[in-house]
Protein backbone atom coordinates (compact mmCIF):
# COMPACT_ATOMS: atom_id res chain seq x y z
CA UNK A 1 0.00 0.00 0.00
CA UNK A 2 1.17 3.56 -0.68
CA UNK A 3 -0.84 5.18 2.10
CA UNK A 4 1.11 7.34 4.52
CA UNK A 5 0.86 7.17 8.30
CA UNK A 6 -2.31 9.25 8.42
CA UNK A 7 -3.80 7.34 5.48
CA UNK A 8 -3.06 3.99 7.07
CA UNK A 9 -4.53 5.08 10.39
CA UNK A 10 -7.67 6.31 8.63
CA UNK A 11 -8.01 3.10 6.60
CA UNK A 12 -7.70 1.05 9.78
CA UNK A 13 -10.39 3.09 11.52
CA UNK A 14 -12.73 2.59 8.56
CA UNK A 15 -12.05 -1.14 8.38
CA UNK A 16 -10.65 -0.88 4.85
CA UNK A 17 -7.50 -2.73 5.85
CA UNK A 18 -6.36 -4.70 8.88
CA UNK A 19 -3.26 -4.13 10.94
CA UNK A 20 -2.25 -7.72 10.17
CA UNK A 21 -2.30 -6.88 6.46
CA UNK A 22 -0.27 -3.72 6.95
CA UNK A 23 2.32 -5.49 9.08
CA UNK A 24 2.54 -8.36 6.61
CA UNK A 25 3.10 -5.89 3.77
CA UNK A 26 5.74 -4.04 5.80
CA UNK A 27 7.63 -7.20 6.72
CA UNK A 28 7.45 -8.42 3.12
CA UNK A 29 8.85 -5.11 1.89
CA UNK A 30 11.65 -5.25 4.46
CA UNK A 31 12.54 -8.79 3.39
CA UNK A 32 12.36 -8.03 -0.32
CA UNK A 33 14.67 -5.03 0.09
CA UNK A 34 16.97 -6.58 2.65
CA UNK A 35 19.99 -5.59 0.57
CA UNK A 36 19.36 -1.95 1.57
CA UNK A 37 20.32 -2.84 5.14
CA UNK A 38 17.74 -0.49 6.63
CA UNK A 39 17.02 -2.66 9.67
CA UNK A 40 19.35 -3.99 12.34
CA UNK A 41 16.48 -5.94 13.96
CA UNK A 42 13.13 -7.00 12.52
CA UNK A 43 10.56 -7.83 15.20
CA UNK A 44 8.54 -10.95 14.49
CA UNK A 45 6.53 -10.02 17.60
CA UNK A 46 4.96 -7.33 15.44
CA UNK A 47 2.74 -9.97 13.83
CA UNK A 48 1.06 -10.84 17.13
CA UNK A 49 0.91 -7.18 18.13
CA UNK A 50 -0.93 -6.48 14.87
CA UNK A 51 -3.52 -9.17 15.68
CA UNK A 52 -4.05 -7.55 19.06
CA UNK A 53 -4.44 -4.14 17.39
CA UNK A 54 -7.11 -5.59 15.09
CA UNK A 55 -9.03 -6.86 18.12
CA UNK A 56 -8.88 -3.45 19.73
CA UNK A 57 -10.07 -1.79 16.52
CA UNK A 58 -12.93 -4.25 16.22
CA UNK A 59 -13.95 -3.38 19.78
CA UNK A 60 -14.16 0.28 18.83
CA UNK A 61 -10.91 1.57 20.32
CA UNK A 62 -9.47 4.56 18.51
CA UNK A 63 -5.93 5.89 18.87
CA UNK A 64 -3.83 8.06 16.53
CA UNK A 65 -1.67 5.19 15.18
CA UNK A 66 -3.54 2.07 16.33
CA UNK A 67 -2.29 -0.80 14.19
CA UNK A 68 0.09 1.28 12.05
CA UNK A 69 3.63 -0.10 11.41
CA UNK A 70 6.53 2.19 12.31
CA UNK A 71 10.27 1.83 12.92
CA UNK A 72 12.68 3.17 15.52
CA UNK A 73 16.38 3.92 15.38
CA UNK A 74 18.77 1.57 17.15
CA UNK A 75 19.62 4.15 19.81
CA UNK A 76 16.21 3.65 21.42
CA UNK A 77 15.28 1.00 23.98
CA UNK A 78 12.49 -1.47 23.31
CA UNK A 79 11.91 -4.17 25.87
CA UNK A 80 13.49 -7.49 24.99
CA UNK A 81 15.92 -6.07 22.41
CA UNK A 82 19.47 -4.80 22.76
CA UNK A 83 20.46 -1.21 22.03
CA UNK A 84 24.03 -1.44 20.72
CA UNK A 85 23.93 1.89 18.86
CA UNK A 86 26.12 0.13 16.25
CA UNK A 87 28.94 -0.64 18.73
CA UNK A 88 30.08 -4.22 19.25
CA UNK A 89 29.85 -5.28 22.90
CA UNK A 90 28.20 -7.57 25.42
CA UNK A 91 24.82 -5.89 25.20
CA UNK A 92 21.87 -6.95 27.32
CA UNK A 93 18.23 -6.74 26.23
CA UNK A 94 16.40 -3.68 27.53
CA UNK A 95 14.19 -4.35 30.52
CA UNK A 96 11.76 -1.56 29.71
CA UNK A 97 10.76 0.63 26.81
CA UNK A 98 12.31 4.03 26.31
CA UNK A 99 9.93 7.00 26.42
CA UNK A 100 9.81 7.24 22.62
CA UNK A 101 8.64 3.63 22.39
CA UNK A 102 6.22 4.08 25.28
CA UNK A 103 4.58 6.98 23.49
CA UNK A 104 4.38 5.09 20.19
CA UNK A 105 2.78 2.12 21.92
CA UNK A 106 0.38 4.42 23.79
CA UNK A 107 -0.73 5.75 20.39
CA UNK A 108 -1.27 2.17 19.18
CA UNK A 109 1.68 1.92 16.78
CA UNK A 110 3.24 -1.45 15.99
CA UNK A 111 7.04 -1.28 15.92
CA UNK A 112 8.38 -3.56 13.20
CA UNK A 113 12.05 -3.13 13.96
CA UNK A 114 15.13 -1.11 14.86
CA UNK A 115 16.99 0.66 12.09
CA UNK A 116 20.67 0.76 11.16
CA UNK A 117 22.92 3.58 12.30
CA UNK A 118 26.63 4.33 12.78
CA UNK A 119 28.58 4.06 16.00
CA UNK A 120 27.00 6.33 18.61
CA UNK A 121 25.52 8.51 15.86
CA UNK A 122 28.80 10.17 15.01
CA UNK A 123 28.71 10.39 11.22
CA UNK A 124 26.43 11.35 8.30
CA UNK A 125 26.49 7.76 7.09
CA UNK A 126 24.99 4.63 8.64
CA UNK A 127 27.73 2.04 8.49
CA UNK A 128 29.53 0.02 11.16
CA UNK A 129 31.82 -3.03 11.13
CA UNK A 130 29.57 -4.99 13.50
CA UNK A 131 26.07 -4.16 12.28
CA UNK A 132 26.37 -3.48 8.58
CA UNK A 133 25.51 -0.80 6.08
CA UNK A 134 22.35 1.12 5.25
CA UNK A 135 22.06 2.06 1.59
CA UNK A 136 20.13 4.72 -0.26
CA UNK A 137 16.98 3.45 -2.03
CA UNK A 138 17.51 6.01 -4.81
CA UNK A 139 20.90 4.45 -5.58
CA UNK A 140 22.34 1.73 -3.33
CA UNK A 141 25.90 2.78 -4.14
CA UNK A 142 25.28 5.87 -1.99
CA UNK A 143 24.56 6.35 1.70
CA UNK A 144 21.10 7.42 2.89
CA UNK A 145 22.96 9.65 5.35
CA UNK A 146 23.29 9.37 9.07
CA UNK A 147 23.08 8.77 11.70
CA UNK A 148 19.36 8.05 11.22
CA UNK A 149 20.10 6.57 7.80
CA UNK A 150 18.37 3.25 8.38
CA UNK A 151 15.18 5.03 9.41
CA UNK A 152 15.35 7.23 6.30
CA UNK A 153 16.02 4.28 4.01
CA UNK A 154 13.10 2.36 5.51
CA UNK A 155 10.67 5.21 4.82
CA UNK A 156 12.05 6.17 1.41
CA UNK A 157 11.89 2.54 0.25
CA UNK A 158 8.31 2.13 1.47
CA UNK A 159 9.04 -0.41 4.21
CA UNK A 160 7.19 1.81 6.69
CA UNK A 161 5.39 5.10 6.24
CA UNK A 162 7.10 6.73 9.20
CA UNK A 163 10.11 6.18 11.41
CA UNK A 164 11.79 7.81 14.39
CA UNK A 165 15.31 9.19 14.19
CA UNK A 166 17.47 11.29 16.48
CA UNK A 167 19.35 14.47 15.65
CA UNK A 168 22.45 15.64 17.51
CA UNK A 169 24.17 17.49 14.65
CA UNK A 170 21.75 17.00 11.75
CA UNK A 171 21.16 13.26 12.04
CA UNK A 172 17.46 13.50 11.11
CA UNK A 173 17.69 16.33 8.60
CA UNK A 174 20.75 15.03 6.71
CA UNK A 175 19.28 11.59 5.89
CA UNK A 176 15.94 13.22 5.11
CA UNK A 177 17.73 15.48 2.61
CA UNK A 178 19.59 12.60 0.99
CA UNK A 179 16.51 10.36 0.65
CA UNK A 180 13.85 12.90 -0.33
CA UNK A 181 11.90 12.98 2.95
CA UNK A 182 10.52 15.40 5.47
CA UNK A 183 12.55 15.26 8.68
CA UNK A 184 11.74 17.30 11.78
CA UNK A 185 14.26 18.19 14.47
CA UNK A 186 12.00 19.43 17.27
CA UNK A 187 12.71 22.05 19.88
CA UNK A 188 15.07 20.83 22.63
CA UNK A 189 12.92 19.18 25.29
CA UNK A 190 9.89 18.70 23.06
CA UNK A 191 10.38 14.93 22.80
CA UNK A 192 11.74 12.99 25.75
CA UNK A 193 14.71 10.70 25.22
CA UNK A 194 14.24 9.08 28.65
CA UNK A 195 15.98 7.10 30.13
CA UNK A 196 18.49 9.64 28.77
CA UNK A 197 17.53 12.75 30.70
CA UNK A 198 20.03 15.09 29.01
CA UNK A 199 20.94 13.35 25.72
CA UNK A 200 24.42 14.35 24.58
CA UNK A 201 24.25 17.26 27.01
CA UNK A 202 21.32 18.91 25.30
CA UNK A 203 22.15 18.69 21.59
CA UNK A 204 20.26 15.48 20.72
CA UNK A 205 16.52 15.27 20.16
CA UNK A 206 14.27 12.56 18.73
CA UNK A 207 11.89 13.26 15.86
CA UNK A 208 10.05 11.90 12.81
CA UNK A 209 10.97 11.02 9.24
CA UNK A 210 8.14 10.67 6.73
CA UNK A 211 7.26 11.39 3.11
CA UNK A 212 4.67 14.05 3.89
CA UNK A 213 4.56 16.96 6.30
CA UNK A 214 1.22 15.74 7.65
CA UNK A 215 2.65 12.33 8.50
CA UNK A 216 5.72 13.85 10.16
CA UNK A 217 3.52 16.25 12.15
CA UNK A 218 1.23 13.40 13.22
CA UNK A 219 4.20 11.42 14.54
CA UNK A 220 5.62 14.50 16.27
CA UNK A 221 2.28 14.98 18.03
CA UNK A 222 2.47 11.38 19.25
CA UNK A 223 6.06 11.78 20.46
CA UNK A 224 5.72 15.19 22.12
CA UNK A 225 5.87 15.60 25.86
CA UNK A 226 8.54 15.64 28.54
CA UNK A 227 9.34 13.06 31.20
CA UNK A 228 9.46 14.44 34.77
CA UNK A 229 13.18 13.60 35.00
CA UNK A 230 14.19 15.38 31.79
CA UNK A 231 16.62 18.28 32.14
CA UNK A 232 14.80 20.25 29.43
CA UNK A 233 11.02 20.48 29.63
CA UNK A 234 8.88 21.97 26.89
CA UNK A 235 5.73 19.89 26.87
CA UNK A 236 2.98 19.66 24.31
CA UNK A 237 2.03 22.56 22.01
CA UNK A 238 -1.22 24.44 22.54
CA UNK A 239 -2.55 23.05 19.25
CA UNK A 240 -1.56 19.73 17.63
CA UNK A 241 1.18 20.09 15.06
CA UNK A 242 -0.96 18.26 12.53
CA UNK A 243 -3.35 21.25 12.70
CA UNK A 244 -0.50 23.45 11.46
CA UNK A 245 -0.43 21.45 8.21
CA UNK A 246 -4.00 22.55 7.50
CA UNK A 247 -3.55 26.27 7.93
CA UNK A 248 -1.88 28.87 5.76
CA UNK A 249 1.36 30.20 7.23
CA UNK A 250 0.59 33.80 6.24
CA UNK A 251 3.14 36.03 4.54
CA UNK A 252 6.44 35.17 6.16
CA UNK A 253 9.82 36.90 6.11
CA UNK A 254 12.34 34.28 4.99
CA UNK A 255 16.09 34.87 5.20
CA UNK A 256 18.15 32.78 2.79
CA UNK A 257 21.65 32.01 4.02
CA UNK A 258 24.59 30.03 2.66
CA UNK A 259 27.00 31.04 5.43
CA UNK A 260 28.57 28.36 7.61
CA UNK A 261 29.74 28.88 11.17
CA UNK A 262 33.21 30.27 11.88
CA UNK A 263 35.95 27.69 11.51
CA UNK A 264 33.83 25.29 9.47
CA UNK A 265 34.90 24.63 5.91
CA UNK A 266 32.49 23.33 3.34
CA UNK A 267 32.31 24.16 -0.36
CA UNK A 268 28.70 24.27 -1.44
CA UNK A 269 27.94 22.03 -4.40
CA UNK A 270 26.56 24.16 -7.29
CA UNK A 271 23.59 21.82 -7.78
CA UNK A 272 22.57 22.24 -4.15
CA UNK A 273 22.84 26.03 -4.36
CA UNK A 274 20.76 25.92 -7.53
CA UNK A 275 18.12 23.80 -5.76
CA UNK A 276 17.91 26.18 -2.77
CA UNK A 277 17.69 29.19 -5.08
CA UNK A 278 14.85 27.49 -6.99
CA UNK A 279 13.04 26.86 -3.71
CA UNK A 280 13.59 30.52 -2.77
CA UNK A 281 11.87 31.58 -5.97
CA UNK A 282 9.02 29.20 -5.24
CA UNK A 283 8.56 30.75 -1.80
CA UNK A 284 8.49 34.21 -3.38
CA UNK A 285 5.79 33.00 -5.78
CA UNK A 286 3.80 31.82 -2.76
CA UNK A 287 3.78 35.40 -1.48
CA UNK A 288 6.57 35.35 1.09
CA UNK A 289 9.20 38.04 1.47
CA UNK A 290 12.46 36.22 0.64
CA UNK A 291 15.82 37.95 1.00
CA UNK A 292 19.50 37.15 1.66
CA UNK A 293 20.63 37.46 5.28
CA UNK A 294 23.00 35.49 7.49
CA UNK A 295 22.70 34.58 11.15
CA UNK A 296 25.66 35.77 13.23
CA UNK A 297 26.93 32.42 14.51
CA UNK A 298 29.91 33.72 16.44
CA UNK A 299 31.80 30.94 18.23
CA UNK A 300 28.85 28.55 18.20
CA UNK A 301 31.19 25.61 17.65
CA UNK A 302 32.34 25.97 21.26
CA UNK A 303 28.85 24.93 22.25
CA UNK A 304 28.97 21.74 20.18
CA UNK A 305 32.35 20.09 20.68
CA UNK A 306 32.26 19.66 24.48
CA UNK A 307 28.67 18.40 24.38
CA UNK A 308 29.24 15.97 21.53
CA UNK A 309 32.55 14.50 22.61
CA UNK A 310 31.61 14.08 26.26
CA UNK A 311 28.25 12.64 25.19
CA UNK A 312 30.02 9.97 23.14
CA UNK A 313 32.27 9.20 26.11
CA UNK A 314 29.27 8.86 28.43
CA UNK A 315 27.40 6.56 26.05
CA UNK A 316 30.43 4.37 25.38
CA UNK A 317 31.41 4.19 29.06
CA UNK A 318 27.90 2.98 29.95
CA UNK A 319 28.18 -0.02 27.59
CA UNK A 320 29.23 -3.47 28.80
CA UNK A 321 32.61 -4.34 27.31
CA UNK A 322 32.30 -2.12 24.21
CA UNK A 323 34.54 -2.74 21.20
CA UNK A 324 34.24 0.43 19.12
CA UNK A 325 36.04 1.53 15.99
CA UNK A 326 39.29 3.38 16.62
CA UNK A 327 37.81 6.69 15.45
CA UNK A 328 34.91 6.34 17.88
CA UNK A 329 37.33 5.70 20.72
CA UNK A 330 39.30 8.83 19.74
CA UNK A 331 36.11 10.91 19.98
CA UNK A 332 35.37 9.43 23.39
CA UNK A 333 38.91 10.06 24.58
CA UNK A 334 38.63 13.72 23.57
CA UNK A 335 35.38 13.85 25.52
CA UNK A 336 36.91 12.37 28.66
CA UNK A 337 40.01 14.57 28.64
CA UNK A 338 38.78 17.85 27.18
CA UNK A 339 35.03 17.80 26.53
CA UNK A 340 34.01 17.29 30.14
CA UNK A 341 36.27 20.12 31.30
CA UNK A 342 34.75 22.54 28.78
CA UNK A 343 31.14 21.41 29.24
CA UNK A 344 30.31 23.96 31.98
CA UNK A 345 31.59 26.75 29.72
CA UNK A 346 29.53 25.43 26.79
CA UNK A 347 26.39 25.53 28.92
CA UNK A 348 27.15 29.06 30.18
CA UNK A 349 27.44 30.23 26.57
CA UNK A 350 23.87 29.23 25.72
CA UNK A 351 22.09 32.52 26.54
CA UNK A 352 24.77 34.55 24.74
CA UNK A 353 24.65 32.38 21.61
CA UNK A 354 20.85 32.44 21.49
CA UNK A 355 20.84 36.21 21.72
CA UNK A 356 23.57 36.56 19.09
CA UNK A 357 22.11 34.14 16.54
CA UNK A 358 18.56 35.05 17.46
CA UNK A 359 18.99 38.62 16.19
CA UNK A 360 18.12 37.26 12.74
CA UNK A 361 14.55 36.81 13.97
CA UNK A 362 14.13 40.52 14.52
CA UNK A 363 13.57 40.83 10.77
CA UNK A 364 12.94 37.22 9.67
CA UNK A 365 10.44 34.57 10.70
CA UNK A 366 12.29 31.63 9.12
CA UNK A 367 15.84 30.99 7.92
CA UNK A 368 16.30 28.89 4.76
CA UNK A 369 19.64 27.16 4.19
CA UNK A 370 20.95 24.11 2.39
CA UNK A 371 20.69 21.03 4.60
CA UNK A 372 24.05 19.71 3.36
CA UNK A 373 26.89 21.17 1.30
CA UNK A 374 27.32 18.02 -0.77
CA UNK A 375 25.00 15.41 -2.31
CA UNK A 376 24.90 11.90 -0.78
CA UNK A 377 28.30 10.35 -0.17
CA UNK A 378 29.30 7.03 -1.65
CA UNK A 379 28.89 4.01 0.63
CA UNK A 380 32.29 3.24 2.12
CA UNK A 381 33.65 6.72 1.41
CA UNK A 382 35.38 6.72 4.80
CA UNK A 383 36.18 3.02 5.16
CA UNK A 384 39.46 2.65 7.01
CA UNK A 385 39.82 6.40 7.52
CA UNK A 386 41.13 7.63 10.83
CA UNK A 387 39.39 10.06 13.12
CA UNK A 388 40.76 13.31 11.73
CA UNK A 389 40.20 12.41 8.07
CA UNK A 390 36.65 11.28 8.80
CA UNK A 391 35.86 14.28 10.97
CA UNK A 392 37.17 16.85 8.48
CA UNK A 393 35.51 15.09 5.54
CA UNK A 394 32.04 14.85 7.05
CA UNK A 395 32.28 18.39 8.46
CA UNK A 396 32.87 19.69 4.94
CA UNK A 397 29.97 17.66 3.56
CA UNK A 398 27.52 18.66 6.31
CA UNK A 399 28.35 22.10 7.77
CA UNK A 400 24.83 23.54 7.92
CA UNK A 401 22.69 21.53 10.33
CA UNK A 402 24.54 21.32 13.64
CA UNK A 403 24.33 24.98 14.69
CA UNK A 404 20.63 24.62 15.49
CA UNK A 405 21.40 21.68 17.78
CA UNK A 406 23.60 23.95 19.90
CA UNK A 407 20.81 26.51 20.08
CA UNK A 408 18.16 23.89 20.73
CA UNK A 409 15.74 25.39 18.21
CA UNK A 410 13.61 23.51 15.66
CA UNK A 411 14.44 22.74 12.03
CA UNK A 412 12.68 20.91 9.21
CA UNK A 413 14.26 19.38 6.13
CA UNK A 414 12.15 19.59 2.99
CA UNK A 415 12.96 17.93 -0.34
CA UNK A 416 14.41 20.48 -2.77
CA UNK A 417 14.86 18.39 -5.91
CA UNK A 418 17.51 16.10 -7.34
CA UNK A 419 21.02 16.19 -8.68
CA UNK A 420 21.51 15.53 -12.37
CA UNK A 421 22.28 11.90 -11.57
CA UNK A 422 19.04 11.46 -9.66
CA UNK A 423 20.10 11.81 -6.01
CA UNK A 424 17.86 13.80 -3.64
CA UNK A 425 18.75 17.28 -2.37
CA UNK A 426 17.31 18.92 0.74
CA UNK A 427 16.87 22.40 2.18
CA UNK A 428 16.17 23.22 5.79
CA UNK A 429 13.68 25.61 7.30
CA UNK A 430 15.07 26.87 10.61
CA UNK A 431 12.90 28.46 13.27
CA UNK A 432 13.11 30.38 16.50
CA UNK A 433 12.52 28.99 19.99
CA UNK A 434 9.64 26.45 20.08
CA UNK A 435 8.27 27.59 16.71
CA UNK A 436 7.82 24.19 15.06
CA UNK A 437 4.27 25.15 14.04
CA UNK A 438 5.43 27.92 11.67
CA UNK A 439 7.96 25.62 10.02
CA UNK A 440 5.41 22.83 9.64
CA UNK A 441 2.81 25.17 8.17
CA UNK A 442 5.32 26.56 5.67
CA UNK A 443 6.57 23.09 4.74
CA UNK A 444 3.01 21.91 4.16
CA UNK A 445 2.37 24.87 1.86
CA UNK A 446 5.51 24.02 -0.09
CA UNK A 447 4.52 20.37 -0.37
CA UNK A 448 1.29 21.27 -2.18
CA UNK A 449 3.16 22.98 -5.02
CA UNK A 450 6.35 20.88 -4.97
CA UNK A 451 4.45 17.54 -4.87
CA UNK A 452 7.43 15.65 -3.48
CA UNK A 453 5.27 12.86 -2.05
CA UNK A 454 4.66 11.67 -5.62
CA UNK A 455 8.34 10.90 -6.20
CA UNK A 456 9.57 7.49 -5.11
CA UNK A 457 12.66 5.40 -5.80
CA UNK A 458 12.10 2.83 -8.54
CA UNK A 459 13.23 -0.02 -6.33
CA UNK A 460 10.55 0.87 -3.77
CA UNK A 461 7.67 0.26 -6.18
CA UNK A 462 5.13 -1.93 -4.49
CA UNK A 463 6.32 -1.04 -0.98
CA UNK A 464 4.01 -0.40 1.92
Summarize, please.
This protein is an alpha+beta fold. Helices cover 37% and strands 14% of the residues. Helix 9 links the parallel strand 9 and strand 10.
Q: Give the beta-strand count.
A: 13
Which strand-content bin applies to the residues? 5-15%
- Rounded mean pLDDT is 96
Largest sheet: 8 strands, mixed
What separation lies between the terminal Cα atoms? 4 Å
The succession of helices and strands, N to C, reads HHEHEHEEEHEHEEHHEHEHHHEHHEEH
> Low-confidence runs (pLDDT<50, min 5 residues)?
460-464
Helix fraction, binned, reads: 25-40%
Counting DSSP H or I runs of 4 or more residues, the number of helices is: 15
The whole-angstrom Rg is 20 Å
Shape: globular
Structural class from helices and strands?
Answer: alpha+beta
Strand order across the biggest sheet? 6-8-7-12-13-11-9-10
Main attributes of the structure:
globular; 464 residues; 37% helix; alpha+beta; disordered C terminus; single chain; eight-stranded mixed β-sheet; three-stranded mixed β-sheet
What can you see in these coordinates?
It holds the Pfam family Amidase. Belongs to the amidase family. This is Amidase. The chain has 464 residues and is α+β, with helices and mostly antiparallel strands. It is built from 15 helices and 13 strands. The chain has helices at residues 5-14, 19-32, 45-58, 99-106, 149-156, 173-179, 213-223, 241-244, 270-285, 301-317, 326-348, 350-358, 387-397, 403-407, 436-450; strands spanning 39-42, 69-73, 110-115, 127-128, 132-133, 162-167, 182-185, 205-210, 253-256, 289-292, 366-370, 411-418, 424-430. α4 (99-106) links the parallel β2 and β3. The longest helix is centred in the last third of the chain and has 23 residues, at 326-348.
